[in-house]
């Protein structure tokens, strides 16, 4: 064979074949090869790696954020403690010193915002300063938080400027604020006295001792963590699979040139690891960048200083190790279901279908853990481990159940209109990708439903019915330790405020029975309420009333209390008013013909009893010390009416307590847990929407040519649009169904554990709505690329 | 191959001596089969008789007498007709087709048009054969297929040549 | 300008992709029931010509008339509707929807046109029978051979009872025997149903199934039958 005879090689010895590499070296070489593919696989390879990295990065950033929460909360409460007045200093009311300061809480509301603030008056040359300010505000000036400064400067806050009419001389530093969005001020005053409600303080810094978190709240917090973090883990696992089909085809090409199956697995592992490591770096970058903006983002009243967002070291290390490891494991697991042959990729096991029994085991195990744990006493210390374990097993079990369910349901779907047929057939061919992404939704939604049920069941504890009746009055103001004179003028000033219909304004004081009493005897005392006839009618069932009348008021259905009232309120006899206020008490004789009437609830739901006198019977301005209570009904139609009333209250007394009447009072801690859940669930759903979108777009791009062919056929855009919608909607709907069923079950179990009954079975609607929103977002976001891919250019690329 | 038409075509660029014609022919088309001078002489006398060429002049400086031929209008028309007329598709047609293409290029006629005409003629025959094949029995089909494959080869050559016409024009036109 | 009795005709089409002209004054026409082969070297613009004729791509200039209606004056939706109702398509590859079964694929144009599922699939099966692939009804395109898939595609193009079938290299991915059979079935079915076929191919033996051929070169169509 002359043709094959290469001149020159015949004489020279053949170069020695390199020895086969050792096993370890082979593993390293294959992993390295995988990394090379991931990094240098051309544009397509980079896109795939980048998608994975961005997905993993988002997940990692979220995990890092979650691991920063403990530090964030610590830092917040530390700052909160540091600016509280020291209990030691309030206890010793003793004396004014060079450092002592008089201050009064002058917090106020503006719209929905709560502004905290203090009026302060220095008593010496070197007054103590709260953290965050370096100069004591002079009278008539104030230092404000940056957020308040901004609010005051905004065009809509004219009424607030009117209220806080101090000159701004500085801003409060970060160490004096709980969060960047906090509205706070310290204003200087030269009129404050202890007699007018001010406290004397000589030191800042609370005693560190905070209330222990109630056990029920521990259960809630554990659940919130599970609900939010499991979907993130699922998301990361999904992100690692981005572009898997293309990778499988590339590996098939490698098999053609001689790589064995083990090699391809190692190469795939290398690729996945590279993507995950890149994702880890990206996640760190996202986290660091996001941290800078965390101050400007405010979700449901929560914002944080970037410096507070510091991951817990141990959790951070766990993330760094676990994420690449998960990536490799998920990849290897995913590759178990495909056989990569030299001439292509064969999926195996599809005919067999998914098996149900082991998928049922996990949620069943979770439920039995919870049931075996049994009921938790309301005040017993709660061991969160079994509850968390049970809940995690149930939620993960639901995620496992979903692929089986999607497959089982979709395989039964037949016929229907063309878009429906396209979507269901597509899902029949490969429902795995869809169910994987949706399982994240399922966990998030099921968890959220269970939690909300738990919240609702616990709401009796957290939500007290206040008995307040906003139809009789929308606002109430109290000002303590004022003279009777000031009290009457304050009520007049409320009445004069624009938009105020009626003021149930009363001056309250205490009346005692004159005489001397033994050390351990209780002086007979009852309350004295002075107001107009109209006011008194709101407080007691009075038939006839003329100015100059007085009444003895008994509480309804309480004989004992009524008798106690009568011991002080003796008709025709004298009572002392303002005894022990440091001033001479006022003596007043209860008229002999005073009728006895029954009390009724005031708009705030409180019962007033004792003595009631009209302003004609007893001149309030003569009282040495009294409390004004003004319950104000306003004309709701007047815009900004609340601000006008608040401004009046602030003018009367910045320290005046001013509340808006609400039929329900909320517990702040409960609110913050719920807020956390809402923020987290939103982020998780967005994350899942992103991963569904990526898979959707990947799939569309793979089908570019087919889409063009369908366009050539004259297929309507709407037909394909609907099919994209159904393709997302069917698995999401199934996922939501599983989530609702599982969530209701879990919620009922948890409610049973804490001795509560489920009050509302329909709480899941908002989450179902959020799921529908997710479908809409994914569909809408995939339409523009779909339209672009539907252009006939796709027919030309061959 | 029609030597008469070829020589006529060569005359189109200007009057030539018989010997000159033979040399040009050999150079352009006769690589493996040079023309005898006698062939040129007899062909030219036939063309002269048919009025397609005329004698432009006679030289006899120190040797035999040499006639100089020039093409007549009738001759030009004849060349055009020949070039326009597609060849009957048959195997081993290339040499004729090649000659036609080169002549078209030499005489400034449309070589690509010529190729298109030929392609069309080939396809016409292929269509007939395909039709016969469809209606015929297996023997018919095999016979037709043989012809079809040959014709297809021709067509490929035609396409290739069409794609390289510019290159060819540079080579053949001095 | 419009040849007598033509069903679909184009005059002086120009189309540029980016800076490269794909069509540069191409004209074309086809009569009802006529099979016309569009030939030419690759990159000559024959596919672009087909896309323009079918109303998939709008030419930059020139007129396309189908059954007396001006195609370039129609909206995208109208042209889509026309493609659904009057045109059928066969491409070289990648045209069957992989997740639908073969019979569902064939029924697709009918269903897009609003025919009920049962009726559409009945018609689809009839056409699959004519193309000798009726045994593949329940299979997915991934489970059938290339030749069978192409016959399914032809059945699909015919199933919607179109007036014109556009076939772009319909046998390009097939061996000669399979390719010829597909062409035979396509042209026979088209002729017997009086359907015009615009057949883009670079293969002479495929073009030989046509009644007439047009060569596209440098974006211009050379229509020799009419010039001769």
TrEMBL record, chain A:
Membrane topology per the record? Multi-pass membrane protein
Region listing for Disordered, in residue ranges: 1-24, 78-105
* Keyword Cytoplasm attributed: no
Q: Which GO terms describe its cellular component?
A: plasma membrane
Q: Which PANTHER family match?
A: BLL1001 PROTEIN, MEMBRANE COMPONENT OF PREDICTED ABC SUPERFAMILY METABOLITE UPTAKE TRANSPORTER
Which residues are listed as membrane-spanning? Answer: 46-66, 216-240, 272-293, 313-335, 356-373, 385-406, 433-455, 676-694, 732-754, 761-783
Q: What is the lineage of its organism?
A: Bacteria, Bacillati, Actinomycetota, Actinomycetes, Kitasatosporales
Primary residence = membrane
Q: Which domain of life is it from?
A: Bacteria
Q: Name one Pfam family in it.
A: FtsX
Task: State if Metal-binding is listed as a keyword.
Answer: no
Q: Which organism is it from?
A: Streptomyces californicus
What protein name does the entry list? FtsX-like permease family protein
Q: Where is the ABC3 transporter permease C-terminal domain?
A: 224-336, 681-791
Subcellular location(s): the record lists: Cell membrane
Q: Which UniProt keywords apply?
A: Cell membrane, Membrane, Transmembrane, Transmembrane helix
TrEMBL record, chain B:
Membrane-spanning intervals of the chain: none
Chain ranges of the Transcription regulator PadR N-terminal domain: 7-76
Q: What is this protein called?
A: PadR family transcriptional regulator
From TrEMBL, chain C:
The record ties this protein, via Pfam families, to:
ABC_tran
Return one GO MF term: ATP binding
Does the record bear Glycoprotein in its keywords? Answer: no
Coiled-coil stretches, from where to where? none
Q: Which UniProt keywords apply?
A: ATP-binding, Nucleotide-binding, Transport
Limits of the ABC transporter domain: 8-228
Against InterPro entries, the record matches this protein to:
AAA+_ATPase, ABC_transporter-like_ATP-bd, ABC_transpr_LolD-like, MacB-like_ATP-bd, P-loop_NTPase
Q: What is this protein called?
A: ABC transporter ATP-binding protein
Its organism's taxonomic lineage begins at:
Bacteria, Bacillati, Actinomycetota, Actinomycetes, Kitasatosporales
């Amino acid at each position: 064979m002359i043709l094959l005879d290469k001149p020159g090689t015949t004489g020279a010895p053949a170069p020695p074949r390199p020895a086969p590499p050792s096993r370890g070296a082979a593993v390293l070489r294959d992993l390295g090869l995988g990394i090379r593919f991931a990094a240098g696989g051309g544009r397509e390879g980079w896109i795939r790696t980048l998608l994975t990295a961005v997905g993993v990065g988002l997940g990692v950033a979220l995990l890092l954020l979650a691991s920063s929460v403990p530090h964030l909360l610590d830092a917040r409460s530390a700052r909160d403690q540091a600016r509280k007045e020291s209990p030691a200093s309030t206890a010793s009311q003793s004396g004014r010193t060079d450092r002592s300061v008089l201050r009064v809480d002058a917090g106020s509301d503006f719209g929905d915002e709560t502004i905290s603030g203090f009026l302060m008056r220095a008593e010496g040359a070197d007054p103590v300063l709260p953290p965050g300010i370096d100069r004591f505000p002079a009278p008539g000036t104030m230092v404000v938080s940056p957020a308040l400064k901004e609010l005051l400067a905004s065009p809509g806050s004219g009424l607030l400027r009117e209220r806080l009419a101090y000159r701004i001389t500085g801003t409060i530093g970060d160490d004096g604020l709980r969060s960047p969005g906090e509205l706070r001020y310290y204003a200087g005053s030269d009129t404050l006295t202890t007699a007018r409600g001010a406290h004397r303080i000589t030191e800042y810094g609370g005693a560190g001792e905070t209330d222990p978190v109630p056990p029920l709240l521990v259960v809630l917090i554990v659940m919130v963590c599970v609900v939010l973090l499991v979907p993130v883990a699922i998301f990361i696992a999904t992100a690692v699979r981005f572009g898997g089909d293309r990778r499988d085809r590339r590996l098939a090409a490698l098999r053609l040139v001689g790589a064995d199956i083990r090699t391809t697995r190692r190469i795939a592992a290398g690729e996945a690891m590279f993507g995950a490591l890149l994702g880890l770096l990206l996640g760190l970058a996202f986290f660091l960048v996001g941290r800078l903006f965390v101050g400007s983002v405010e979700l449901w009243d929560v914002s944080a200083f970037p410096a507070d967002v510091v991951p817990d070291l141990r959790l951070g290390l766990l993330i760094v190790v676990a994420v690449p490891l998960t990536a490799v494991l998920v990849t290897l697991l995913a590759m178990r279901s495909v056989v990569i042959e030299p001439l292509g990729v064969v999926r195996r096991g599809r005919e067999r279908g998914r098996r149900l029994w082991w998928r049922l085991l996990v949620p069943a195990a979770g439920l039995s853990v919870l049931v075996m744990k049994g009921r938790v006493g309301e005040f017993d210390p709660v061991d969160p481990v079994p509850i968390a374990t049970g809940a995690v097993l149930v939620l993960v079990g639901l995620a496992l159940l979903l692929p089986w369910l999607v497959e089982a349901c979709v395989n039964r779907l037949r016929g229907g209109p063309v878009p429906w047929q396209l979507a269901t057939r597509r899902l029949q061919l490969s429902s795995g990708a869809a169910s994987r992404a949706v399982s994240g939704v399922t966990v998030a939604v099921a968890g959220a439903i269970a939690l909300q049920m738990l919240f609702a069941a616990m709401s009796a504890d957290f939500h007290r019915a206040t008995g307040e009746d906003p139809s009789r009055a929308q606002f109430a103001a109290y000002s303590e330790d004022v003279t009777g004179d000031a009290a009457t003028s304050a009520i007049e000033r409320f009445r004069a405020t624009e938009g105020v219909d009626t003021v149930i304004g009363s001056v309250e004081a205490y009346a005692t029975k004159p005489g001397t009493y033994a050390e351990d005897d209780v002086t007979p005392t009852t309350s004295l309420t002075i107001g107009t006839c109209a006011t008194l009618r709101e407080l007691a069932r009075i038939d006839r009333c003329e100015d100059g009348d007085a009444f003895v008021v008994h509480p309804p259905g309480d004989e004992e209390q009524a008798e106690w009232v009568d011991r002080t309120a003796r008709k025709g006899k004298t009572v002392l008013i303002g005894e022990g206020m440091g001033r001479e008490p006022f003596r007043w004789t209860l008229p002999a013909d005073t009728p006895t009437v029954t009390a009724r609830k005031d708009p705030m739901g409180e019962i007033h009893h004792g003595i009631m006198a009209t302003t004609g019977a007893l001149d309030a301005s003569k009282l040495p010390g009294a409390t004004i209570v003004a319950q104000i009904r306003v004309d709701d139609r007047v815009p900004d009416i609340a601000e006008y009333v608040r401004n009046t209250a602030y003018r009367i007394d910045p320290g005046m307590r001013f509340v808006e009447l609400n039929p329900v009072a909320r517990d702040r801690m409960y609110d913050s847990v719920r807020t956390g859940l809402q923020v987290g669930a939103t982020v998780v759903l967005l994350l899942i929407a992103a991963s569904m979108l990526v898979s959707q777009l990947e799939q569309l791009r793979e089908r570019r040519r087919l889409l063009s062919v369908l366009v050539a056929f004259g297929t309507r855009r709407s037909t394909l649009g609907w099919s994209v919608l159904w393709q997302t909607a069917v698995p999401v709907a199934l996922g939501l169904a599983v989530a609702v069923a599982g969530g209701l079950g879990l919620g009922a179990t948890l409610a049973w554990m804490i001795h509560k009954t489920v009050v509302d079975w329909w709480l899941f609607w908002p989450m179902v709505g959020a799921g529908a929103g997710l479908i809409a977002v994914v569909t809408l976001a995939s339409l523009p690329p779909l339209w672009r891919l539907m252009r006939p250019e796709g027919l030309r690329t061959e | 191959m029609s030597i008469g038409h070829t020589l006529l075509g060569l005359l189109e660029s200007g009057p030539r001596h018989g010997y000159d014609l033979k040399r040009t022919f050999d150079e352009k088309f006769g690589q493996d089969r040079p023309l005898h001078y006698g062939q040129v002489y007899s062909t030219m006398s036939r063309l002269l008789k048919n009025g397609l060429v005329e004698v432009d002049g006679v030289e006899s400086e120190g040797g035999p007498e040499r006639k100089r031929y020039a093409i007549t209008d009738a001759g030009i028309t004849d060349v055009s007709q020949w070039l326009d007329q597609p060849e009957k598709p048959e195997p081993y047609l290339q040499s004729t087709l090649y000659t036609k293409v080169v002549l078209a290029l030499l005489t400034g006629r449309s070589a690509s048009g010529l190729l298109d005409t030929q392609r069309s003629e080939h396809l016409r025959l292929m269509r007939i054969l395909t039709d016969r094949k469809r209606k015929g029995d297996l023997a018919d089909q095999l016979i037709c297929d043989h012809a079809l494959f040959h014709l297809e080869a021709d067509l490929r050559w035609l396409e290739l040549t069409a794609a390289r016409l510019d290159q060819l024009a540079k080579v053949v036109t001095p | 300008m419009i040849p007598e009795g033509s069903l679909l005709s184009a005059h002086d089409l120009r189309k540029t992709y980016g800076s490269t002209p794909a069509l540069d004054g191409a004209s074309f026409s086809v009569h009802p029931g006529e099979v016309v082969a569009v030939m030419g070297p690759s990159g000559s613009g024959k596919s672009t010509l087909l896309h323009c004729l079918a109303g998939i791509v709008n030419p930059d200039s020139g007129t396309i008339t189908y059954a007396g209606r001006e195609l370039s004056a129609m909206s995208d939706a109208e042209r889509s509707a026309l493609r659904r109702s009057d045109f059928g398509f066969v491409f070289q590859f990648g045209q069957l929807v992989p997740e639908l079964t073969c019979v569902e694929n064939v029924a697709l144009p009918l269903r897009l046109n609003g025919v009920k599922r049962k009726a559409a699939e009945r018609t689809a099966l009839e056409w699959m029978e004519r193309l000798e692939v009726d045994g593949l009804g329940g299979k997915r395109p991934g489970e059938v051979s290339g030749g069978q898939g192409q016959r399914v595609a032809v059945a699909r193009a015919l199933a919607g009872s179109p007036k014109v079938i556009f076939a772009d290299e319909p046998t390009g991915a097939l061996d000669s025997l399979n390719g010829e059979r597909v062409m035979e079935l396509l042209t026979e079915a088209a002729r017997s149903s009086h359907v015009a076929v615009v057949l883009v191919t670079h293969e002479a033996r495929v073009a030989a199934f046509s009644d007439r051929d047009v060569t596209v070169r440098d974006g211009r169509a050379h229509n020799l039958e009419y010039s001769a």
